[in-house]
Amino acid sequence: MTDTSDISVTSLPIASLQRGGGLAAWRQIADALAEAIDRGEFPAGGQLPTEAALATWFGVNRHTVRRALGTLAENGRVRATQGRGTFVEQGPIRYPIGLRTRFSEIVSRAGRKAWGDLTAAAEAAADAETAEALGIAIGEPVIEMRTLHRADGAPISAARISLPLPRFAGFEEAYARSGSITRAFGQFGIDDYTRLSTRIGARAATTEEAARLDIAPGRTLLTLSSVNVDREGRRIEASRSLFAADRVELVVE
Q1: Which pLDDT value is given to residue 21?
Q2: Which of 125, 167, 179, 207 is the most core-located residue (most Cβ within 10 A)?
Q3: What is the pLDDT of residue 16?
Q4: What is the per-residue pLDDT for 10?
Q5: Is residue 3 assigned to a domain?
Q6: Cβ atoms within 10 A of the Cβ of 124, count?
Q7: Run means of pLDDT, 10 residues per run, the chain, 253 residues
Q8: pLDDT at residue number 73
Q9: 3-state DSSP call for residue 169?
């Protein structure tokens, strides 16, 4: 990932503002940054200069710069990560949905580094939806995990994953160590598993979901509800995933 955040403001490859022309300063800044991105002067995955540097270069306050960056985020051109800065969005990953759908393999084939973070885990009683998906009775125990999947550090999807107990007791620790559902299943003797079903939908992101995925609230999410089975056809995983629509291209195979 290219870091241009400390670039000298005097060398920024962007135009000066036109004063008194009727076009708001923040709009001009957004357009100038978008043009610089299109020219490759701020490469995909690279970090933009800081708000302070941009404000100095354009001769405006940071609020004006922040509004310009917010517009670029709403248009899917950049993503703002709290505490780290603003990054140029990379192109969408081709994401096949088929008999074997493996996040790590898909991201790796795109030339990017895959990793999954465990954000929460707890034992729970299966609700009606989870019970139906896993083929168990309502109220039976499951382990529920909340995960965040990344490609080169950029959040791609957030998921709620349910697995039946007692078969997968301790699965959350295996996943936290490996960062991969496939590798975690391997620690439970499952060397292969296949997709039984997938349901795909779309909706707008809530404020909380947008924060998790580093996107602007209201941006489009792709929703996937899926069930995986082991070699014997036993249901081993039910997941409900939210994908940042600008970051993946779903391909049903």
Answers
A1: 65
A2: 179
A3: 65
A4: 44
A5: no
A6: 14
A7: 48 60 85 88 89 89 93 86 85 91 91 93 98 98 97 93 98 96 96 96 94 88 97 97 93 88
A8: 86
A9: coil
Helices 25-38/51-58 angle, 10° precision: 110
Classified as helix, coil or strand, 8 is coil
User: What's the start-to-end Cα distance of the chain, in Å?
Assistant: 31
What is the C-alpha separation between 81 and 159, in angstroms, rounded?
Answer: 19
Q: What pLDDT shows up at residue 8? A: 45
Same domain? For 37 and 69 the reply is: yes
Whether residue 100 sits in one domain with residue 47:
no
CA atoms of 27 and 198, how far apart (whole Å): 41
Which amino acid is present at 17? L
Question: Residue 128, SS3?
Answer: helix
Q: What is the amino acid identity at position 171?
A: F
Distance CA 154, CA 175 (A): 19
What is the 8-class DSSP label of residue 247? Answer: G
User: What pLDDT sits at residue 215?
Assistant: 87
Place of tokens 């990017």: 112
- Structural tokens at position 153: 């550090």
Would strands 85-88 and 78-81 be described as parallel, antiparallel, or unpaired? antiparallel
Token pair 């997968």: residue: 168
Q: Residue 159's beta-bridge partner residues?
A: 147, 241
State residue 9's pLDDT score. 47
In this structure, the dihedral spanned by the alpha carbons of residues 177, 107, 7 and 33, taken in order and rounded to 10 degrees, is: -130
**Would you say residue 2 lies in a domain?**
no
Q: Closest by alpha carbon to 165, among 131, 116, 129, 128?
A: 131
Does 181 lie in the same domain as 117?
yes
HSE-up of 60 (CA within 13 Å, CB side)? 21
Find the domain containing 53 and state its range: 9-88
